[in-house]
Amino acid sequence: MSANSAVEPGRAVRERISPPTRAPKKRLPPKIAGRSMVGLVWAGPALVAYAVFVVYPFTQTVRYSLYDWDGFGSARFVGIENYRRVLTDPQLAGSIGHAFVLIVFFTVIPVGVGLLCAAALSRVDRGPVGGLARAVLIVPQILPLVGAAIAWTWAYSSEGAINQLLRAVGLGGLARPWLADFDLALPAVGLIGTWVSLGFCTVLLLSGVGRIDKSLFEAARLDGAGHFRELTTVLIPGVRREITVCVTVTVIAALASFDIVYVSTGGGPGTETMVPGVEIYRLTFLSQQVGQASALGVALTVLVLAVVLPLQWLGRER
Amino acid sequence: MTKRWSPTHMMRYALLLALIVYTLLPLISMLTTALAPEGSVPRGLEWPSDPQWGNFRLAWREADLLPLLLSSSLIVLAVVPVSLVLASFAGYAFAFLRIPGRRVLYVGFLAGLALPLEALITPLYYQARSLGTFESRWAIILPLIGLFMSFGVFWMTNQFKSLTPELQQAAQLDGASQWQIFRHVHLPLVRSGLSVLGILYFLWTWNQFLLALVLVSDPHHRTMAGALGTFQSQYGTNIVLLCAAALIVMIPSLLIYLVFQRQFINAILQGGLK
């Protein structure tokens, strides 16, 4: 466990290879390892675990998605009918639409505000206050999303903290049970995601800003760049990689959200906050439409890939 | 130095303070609520005149929290070490050994990073029933190990790849076995990367909700997040006890976070930077 084991093995090997080897460097074997089956043995356990609990279940999901099946009785092959319904059924298509709305709250706001905060805070970042802030801002990432959802559900309720604050500043007219409001429930749920993502994005972007060469800022200032120019010409290009990471992680969290929505609203009121994750759960376990749930699952996977893959490509290009 | 207390500087501290308050607000609201007299209708943000610290004891008893903590810990103790070992072996193989179809296999692992758990949950349910693990902790443990392989293999492969191949060649020339080279040369050098992975695995296990919700109904066999979900449906109307129980459930992760704060922050930042 301690530091000495890091030294020990290196030394052990060096001692064993220390007698000056007579074999000249050119004679090193071109391929590092011997027979190819050895590698397969090493990777085997991980491959098996992955194949049994990820790959195989996914092939099953694809198979189920082509059938009309209640999970118990006999299944009827329906081809792409379930997929057609994902696109045409208002509730199913609506859940996908809601997932995209959540991207605004899980990704756009946290990355945008995070960037502004990182720009403003890059100079107070160091020192005890910065350290404390960093530690606190990461806390929402440590807590289970279920806990975040419970805390916010209470904060949004009639007697909760949000309404109390509104009344305190004289905006009591706006007070309402937010999660029961047909128009505002989705943004309210989204803002729970904002709370979870904002600190993570801010701290990650701050660490990126810290790596930007200081002379670039000076050069920009000498050129007479204002804060805005500085942001667009130095800061944002400098943290391009961090932005890609924030966007990727939070977009997946938005599209595949489950915990926050399930605990705070369960998809309601009505289906105003229904998202694909909760809809899949509902279809399989509450209304026994396994085929339909599976088609939505495959559609969700394709959607995540379609959004995430181009992001990776954008992040790499330079 | 002279600019230390300039207005812009003060503005920056104000912004920092606002961010901190925003982050803590819902948690503070939970605390003040948990301290209100039980059975009362508490206000969201108001320090109670007579804080009822006994509510925490009550919640601990009512919600039977000790077995829940044990259950979560057992799941973590099974998932984290096994996942770390499997991911290290596979990462080592992808970095240094020859594997037939290696690129395809590697991309196959990577694809799992974008695979939402919801797309697997229905088959995992039927699988758990047929394996006979349904309603037991194994129903959570086994799939989690499989699910963790995507990130773990990716992470460990990169860790091993960052080492120089000369080490491997030198040790091999010397006649050390593959296992010796792995155990005594390479593994010690990726120890910090391994601990980052361990921290992330711990968090992802402790906070896993969907698997617990679907595969295990008894909270005594669930993860902590799963147990929290049970509370919410049980005590949804008793907001005081719910807040007290939820806080207790979140304390272990917070404590571990306080102790390993630097490592956690590194883990979350590096884990994000995939």
From TrEMBL, chain B:
Sorted keywords for this record are:
Cell membrane, Membrane, Transmembrane, Transmembrane helix, Transport
**Does the record bear Transport in its keywords?**
yes
Gene Ontology BP terms: transmembrane transport
The protein's topology relative to the membrane is: Multi-pass membrane protein
Highest taxon above the source species:
Bacteria
Q: In which compartments does the protein localize?
A: Cell membrane
A GO CC annotation recorded here is: plasma membrane
**Domain ABC transmembrane type-1 positions:** 69-260
The text of the family note is:
Belongs to the binding-protein-dependent transport system permease family.
In its UniProt entry, what is this protein called?
A: Carbohydrate ABC transporter permease
